């Protein structure tokens, strides 16, 4: 059979059978391979590692928020926690970060120095509580007198070393003075440089622990007795600030932490929305 080309009949060429079909199929396969390679190469490049420097009390919120955020965003969260004072010193020394979470006082100081970009976002607050080892008697601490008796009766009391810059440690030092028992307790104090104070209950090095509630709840083997009485309670607020050269991934994480999802996690971890 001949074919018509430009109004003229061209003799049949057996070698042309299927040629018009084969070539487009080869092109499609080639294009598919190129596109797949490009997507594979571009995938890891789009994923970012978001580094967060956080004061210890907010760490549990970040760890709880991480799995869903990583799955939905495709990014990876790296959390580094320390006392608020230590974090401020690290940032001043030039340590890099994408998101910083510390109390407003440290945040404002760093912002004035140009080491935090933009406005800080309020994230939450947490009070201080007292914990004992699981199975140990739970003392009364609901009044100042009951709290004073509980502290005097405890052979060893663990709390953050005030010299480390932790807000709860400074408050405990003030509290002991307020109750008039600083000297009596001095020799029985177990000063913790950072981390989870309630772990000292579990390893047997303390009988009573005073720390922020969000850092007591995660410690298996420790039991929260309750918060400090209202007259001597200290709520520590936390705010989030981006680096001076913020990345979009870090912005997205901060928005999530300050939104409805973040507030739900806050309450589950013993914290409250910003007051």
Distance between the termini: 87 Å
Largest sheet: 5 strands, mixed
User: From N to C, what is the helix and strand string?
Assistant: EEHEHEHEHEEHEHHEHEHEEHH
**Helical residues, percent:** 40-55%
Provide a count of the helices: 11
- Kindly report the CATH topology of the largest domain: D-Maltodextrin-Binding Protein, domain 2
Point out poorly predicted stretches: 1-7, 15-23, 36-45
Average predicted confidence as pLDDT: 87
- By CATH, the superfamily of the largest domain comes out as Periplasmic binding protein-like II
Number of strands: 12
Name the CATH class of the largest domain: Alpha Beta
Using only C-alpha atoms, the radius of gyration works out to 30 Å
Strand adjacency order, main sheet: 4-3-5-12-6
- What is the count of distinct domains? 2
InterPro entries: ModA/WtpA
Protein name: Substrate-binding domain-containing protein
Structure in words:
The chain is α/β, with parallel strands linked by helices and 275 residues long. It has 2 domains: 113 residues, D-Maltodextrin-Binding Protein, domain 2; 105 residues, Periplasmic binding protein-like II (D-Maltodextrin-Binding Protein, domain 2, 3-Layer(aba) Sandwich). Strand 1 and strand 2 form a beta hairpin. The chain contains 11 helices and 12 strands. Helix 2 crosses helix 10. It is elongated. The termini are far apart. The strands form 3 sheets. The protein has a 5-stranded mixed beta sheet with strand order 4-3-5-12-6, sandwiched between helices. It comes from Muricoccus vinaceus. This is Substrate-binding domain-containing protein. InterPro entries: ModA/WtpA (IPR050682).
């Amino acid at each position: 059979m001949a074919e018509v080309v430009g109004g003229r009949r061209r003799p049949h060429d057996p070698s042309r059978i299927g040629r018009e079909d084969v070539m487009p199929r080869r092109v499609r396969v080639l294009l598919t391979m190129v596109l797949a390679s490009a997507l594979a190469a571009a995938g890891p490049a789009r994923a970012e590692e978001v580094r967060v420097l956080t004061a210890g009390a907010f760490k549990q919120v970040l760890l709880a928020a991480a799995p869903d955020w990583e799955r939905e965003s495709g990014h990876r969260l790296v959390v580094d926690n320390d006392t608020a004072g230590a974090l401020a010193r690290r940032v001043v020394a030039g340590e890099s970060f994408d998101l910083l979470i510390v109390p407003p006082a440290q945040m404002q100081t760093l912002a004035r120095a140009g080491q935090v970009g933009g406005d800080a976002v309020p994230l939450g607050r947490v009070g201080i509580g007292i914990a004992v080892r699981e199975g140990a008697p739970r003392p009364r601490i609901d009044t100042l007198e009951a709290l004073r008796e509980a502290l005097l009766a405890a052979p060893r009391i663990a709390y953050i070393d005030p010299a480390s810059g932790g807000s709860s440690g400074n408050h405990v030092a003030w509290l002991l003075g307020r109750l008039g028992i600083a000297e009596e307790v001095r020799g029985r104090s177990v000063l913790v440089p950072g981390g989870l104070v309630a772990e000292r209950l579990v390893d047997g090095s303390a009988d009573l622990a005073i720390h922020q509630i969000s850092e007591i709840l995660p410690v298996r083997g420790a039991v929260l007795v309750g918060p400090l009485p209202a007259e001597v309670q200290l709520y520590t607020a936390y705010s989030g600030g981006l680096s001076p050269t913020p990345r979009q991934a870090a912005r997205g994480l901060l928005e999530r932490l300050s939104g409805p999802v973040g507030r739900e996690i806050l309450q589950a971890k013993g914290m409250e929305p910003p007051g």
